[in-house]
Amino acid sequence: MKETLALIFGGKSCEHEISLISAKNIHASLDKNKYDVILIGIDKSGGWHICDESVWEDSQDLPSLSKEKAERYPAVAVIPDTKTRGFISLGDSKQIVSVDIAFPITHGPFGEDGTLQGLLRMAGIPYVGADLLSSSICMDKSVSKKLLEANSIPVLPFMEFRNSEEVSRKRIESHLKLPLFVKPSNLGSSVGISKVKSWEELEEAVKNAFKFDSKIIIEQGAEVREIECAVIGNSYPESSVPGEIIPINHEFYSYKAKYEDPNGADLIIPAKLYPDQVDVAKRLAISAYKILNVSGFARVDLFLCRGNFFVNEVNTLPGFTSISMFPKLWEYSGIKYNELLDKLIKLAKEKHKLDFALFLDL
């Protein structure tokens, strides 16, 4: 018997377009003999809609669910009823669509930061990926780095600043050296990140980061190799082989290098590491995953600097585009894209059953 799966994508964040590309790839790879897929698109204003495959059409560049485009699709809302587990049409029909599981692929704020996960949990809908707590922790670079540091996981030196604070160059100079990376604390896809190579560039970089968040971090720059591990699992997570990202004609793996420049980076799978380095990278990725209480899946980004590994961040909703590292790493590690989706769905159902065993008759 087929299960009904709600594939949720879009959202209000600046990663909206990447979310639609990820969703398109997931939808194409889901086994339609196993799943009836309901497409739930969140437009740029935050409205929810039941869409069809035309949502990915009419686009000369990156696909987008603008408010105008969204008007062609029926509006829906989550039903706050753990027995119904689904959505209700806001039109005249008031049609109810029950689902067995949700697969959110909503990158960035209002989707990856625990807000959507909390809503789905209240509605009793099992969902793929990390829960509310770990999603919000991992979304906040400052909070996650502090937790990792407190548990003896190495991170590069950094400082946190809030919008109301004065970002003092003198204070920064006393703790960090050039070059620096200035980043919004709560954002992904390298949006709003600047590399600062001179103190004269600092003010503009800070202004740019504050456009995207009320809290920013300023991190020590270094000559590093960018290593990534894909981790899946609940209580007993496992890591893929490490891969490496080598930016081409870009200072770092920026948004432009990731999504706008087809030749922006080389993705090396597996990364060219010594066997003992592979072991260290995988152990460190799994340790960070556990410390931040992640379940389901995540991509753990590492820096390799002068023979030492540092955790950069843990991404709980990594990209699932055709060039994204997460599915590519698992494909090399022996799990095909469609098999990976099945595995993530199975992990989500196991986690939901465990979490709700005391509250629901499952």
Count helical runs: 11
Kindly name the structural category.
alpha+beta
State the end-to-end CA separation. 18 Å
CATH class of the largest domain reads: Alpha Beta
Estimated helix fraction: 25-40%
- Into which percentage range does the β-strand content fall? 25-35%
Q: Quick check: average pLDDT?
A: 90
The CATH H-level superfamily of the largest domain is ATP-grasp fold, B domain
Question: In a nutshell, what does this entry contain?
Answer:
This protein has 11 helices and 17 strands. By secondary structure, it is α+β, with helices and mostly antiparallel strands. The chain folds into 3 domains: 3-127, Rossmann fold (3-Layer(aba) Sandwich); 145-153 and 223-352, D-amino Acid Aminotransferase, Chain A, domain 1 (2-Layer Sandwich); 157-220, ATP-grasp fold, A domain (Dna Ligase, domain 1).
Describe the structure.
With 362 residues, this protein is α+β, with helices and mostly antiparallel strands. The protein has 3 domains: 3-127, Rossmann fold (3-Layer(aba) Sandwich); 145-153 and 223-352, D-amino Acid Aminotransferase, Chain A, domain 1; 157-220, Dna Ligase, domain 1. It contains 11 helices and 17 strands. Strand 4 and strand 5 form a beta hairpin. The longest helix has 20 residues, at 337-356. It is globular, with a radius of gyration of 20 Å. The model has no long low-confidence stretch (mean pLDDT 90).
